[in-house]
Amino acid sequence: MSRVLVTGGTGYIGSHTVVCLMQQGYDVTIVDNLSNSDLKVLDGISGIVGRRPDFVQADCLDGSALDAVFDSFPDICAVIHFAASKAVGESVEKPLMYYRNNIGSLLNLLESMRSHKVNRLVFSSSCTVYGQPDKAHLPVDESAPIQKALSPYGNTKQINEDIIQDTAHAAPELNAIILRYFNPIGAHQSALIGELPNGVPNNLLPFVTQTAAGLRPKLRVFGDDYNTPDGSCIRDYIYVMDLAQAHVKAVQRLEDGGREEQVEIFNLGTGRGLSVLEIVKTFMEVTGAEVPYEITGRREGDIEQVWANPEKANRVLGWKADTPVGEVLLSAWNWEKHLRNIK
Ligand code: NAD
Ligand code: UD1
Fold this sequence. Notes:
With 343 residues, this protein is α/β, with parallel strands linked by helices. The chain has two domains: 3-186 and 239-268, NAD(P)-binding Rossmann-like Domain (Rossmann fold, 3-Layer(aba) Sandwich); 204-234 and 271-340, UDP-galactose 4-epimerase, domain 1 (Alpha-Beta Complex), CATH 3.90.25.10. It has eleven helices and 13 strands. It has helices at residues 12-23, 40-49, 63-72, 88-93, 95-115, 152-170, 204-212, 240-256, 276-287, 311-317, 325-340, and strands spanning 3-7, 27-32, 54-57, 76-81, 120-126, 175-181, 183-185, 219-222, 234-235, 237-239, 263-268, 274-275, 293-296. Uridine-diphosphate-N-acetylglucosamine binds at residues 88, 126, 128, 154, 183, 202-204, 207, 219-222, 233, 235, 276, 299, 301-302.
């Protein structure tokens, strides 16, 4: 069986993807510097899969460390590159750190891949590249225009996509799949792995589960005066296990070789937009937990509404995100309860 190198593999989406890869029979080597994850994740993964992935603690900014990983695992056939800094607000305050980490890591990785003749790459991008699409482009498909990034984080994703396109242009043997995620939420059904937000969560779901667990007094719903049915913002929330499965499909597609373009791009979402208030209400219904909330002012930089047209991924990758949202919200709650020892 072939081996996949997963950078950022102890992180949130990476760890769920490693589980899916190993369950499909792949060997996995994780490279992570643990800047936003914990070694205990490896116990969670082996608790689910029954075997441990290989793990190398290394920084993608260290090119020789990456070279050493490819030297140690000559059977690596593909790379999934998750490793990046991802907090939008922090990127506004520390742009140089974001540009250095997110761009430097990809440059080193591509150089190591080139010198070790590894020619398959799956890259984590984001729907943030579309900004606020105009009404004619909702739901958003891959042909929607890329808009000027709203944050240094968003800009690193756009620049990374360009770097991959240019590198592939110069190297016809290199094939890449760029995956633009919408809003990943939830945790593995076992509650052995999940999202570990650093400090006060910025994203909606961890804030909801922490409020339900009593760690935060109240959820703030950022605005109910948007031009949406209930006035709160709309997003496409995708179950992290569905998202993880798409990565396995992407690796398989790169291995099979039946490709339309050298660099393929897919939107990964459910195709359904849900409002903040719908999420909060459904969460309370399915879990029975209380989430005290108040409506506050809008959050600066927020997009009013965006959701995916995932038709291309459904058709070409043979993949669909179809886990019911109630089940997904319950998985997020079970993970929070596991973390906090709540019965
Ligand atoms: P995460 O922070 O949980 O995982 C990223 C992992 O990369 C962490 O384990 C971190 O320690 C590691 N890392 C960071 N810099 C590194 C470096 N220089 N060398 C080695 N390891 C490094 O984040 P996530 O939510 O799992 O996101 C994974 C990828 O998906 C990121 O590229 C992110 O930008 C992208 N993405 C995430 C979301 C989301 O909502 N979570 C949405 C769109 C795109
Ligand atoms: C944010 C990032 C985006 C990134 C995505 C996934 C911004 C502007 N965008 O998107 O680049 O790809 O995270 O990591 O930060 N909300 C509340 N109360 C809260 C938290 C959130 O009402 O306490 C609302 C927000 O206003 C938004 C929705 O919940 O309408 C989802 O927010 P969030 O989880 O932060 O994701 P995005 O804003 O979609």
